[in-house]
Design a protein that fits this description.
2 copies of one chain form a homodimer.
Chain A (H helix, E strand, L loop, with lengths): L3 H14 L4 H7 L24 H11 L3 H9 L5 E6 L21 E4 L9 E4 L14 E5 L9 E6 L4 E9 L3 E6 L7 E4 L3 E11 L1
Parallel strand pairs in A: 1-3
Antiparallel strand pairs in A: 1-2, 3-4, 4-9, 5-6, 5-9, 6-7, 7-8
Helix pairs in contact in A: 1-4
Chain A binds a DNA duplex through helix 2.
Amino acid sequence: MLSHAHIWRALDTLAERLGLSASALARRAGLDATTFNRSKREAPDGRPRWPSTESIAKVLAATGTSLDDFMALMDGSGRRAIPLIGFAQAGEGGFFDDAGFPVGGAWDEIAFPNVGDEHAYALEIAGDSMLPLYRDGDVVVVSPAAPIRRGDRVVVKTREGEVLAKELKRQTARTVELRSLNPEHPDRMLQDGEIAWIARVLWASQ
Amino acid sequence: MLSHAHIWRALDTLAERLGLSASALARRAGLDATTFNRSKREAPDGRPRWPSTESIAKVLAATGTSLDDFMALMDGSGRRAIPLIGFAQAGEGGFFDDAGFPVGGAWDEIAFPNVGDEHAYALEIAGDSMLPLYRDGDVVVVSPAAPIRRGDRVVVKTREGEVLAKELKRQTARTVELRSLNPEHPDRMLQDGEIAWIARVLWASQ
DNA sequence: TGATGAATAGGAATTATACCCTATTCCCGC
DNA sequence: GCGGGAATAGGGTATAATTCCTATTCATCA
């Protein structure tokens, strides 16, 4: 919801709406004219660079823009449908990129507006292997960007294409220990190299 | 607008709603625990210091908070928040009307918009009696207006003032059978006259 | 009461962003 | 085509935010 791309798009859109260039907008806000240069939006090594909160505050003050207006420029609406697929399908190829972000057009959608991660997606549970926590038909909302700590419920995809929902038991430099949600299933230990990505479960439908 | 005080108040309020300290919120967002220290909010000479846009984005992503909700925390309007109380408090009088809708001003709030039911509310789980499904500190979002079917997780309030979270096992004209979430606890059967209201659990934080 | 862990204050080191400067491109009017 | 102004790319410097570290306070628990 608040991403590098969103912030810069909102600044560009605001400037355009006021009939200003990026440099003119910066100047009007009392900032250096090159602050919003496109060449300053990424570091030389490709890492994203963000405008500071204070710079944004100055722009809003200088242009008489409310925070609500600015937010509306980011992606139009606050409520958003997030992509949804079945848990079994997630193991097939073509639904995720290397970072575990959803890609491709084969996703269904579910209305769930309250997610801070624009790459969040939803998985529909199939089968009874994750009882008693998740039941057949439940929907879990997953954030690939959220940091993960011990005790979090997580979705793990292995390099072999297997998709697991587990609780993070222990994480070391080389290994990840996962506790099964269903106590009848054994716990699982994965080496770092075996894991394609791990994403945290934020919410679960009941 | 977007002021130094607003930003820090929003971060503090967000942390408070999630039951976190300033340092715990920073840690959850993958930042250094001292990033949001009060001692870091002003420079030694008194000039204001702002959290970076990137840090705010990380907080939103890590907590599943939308920008909408975050802004609501700034101006204090809370327009998209839903009411929240602790599970234990729900048994006391004064929080619900006869239909099971939340009433009164003693509710806290949590950012979780758009569940589709304007009377929806949230309960914070306390204790381990509902393990393994709900853990201490989890938040469940409850809809008193949602229709209830067999297998749904429900919150039931008895006329005696007891509040239970159970799974609906069977419902007949005169009785309601409830399965305990913790298998070590016995199931429960209630007569129609014993029940004040039943509400369905829609979502549970993970 | 003592031990433990979380939270916080405060200082030094690191890293990121804003500023300043220059070169180049683009647009527009002449 | 030419000149002037704005816009932008890119690099060095200054400044601000984050991280890292330590000391202290506070709450909790045995």
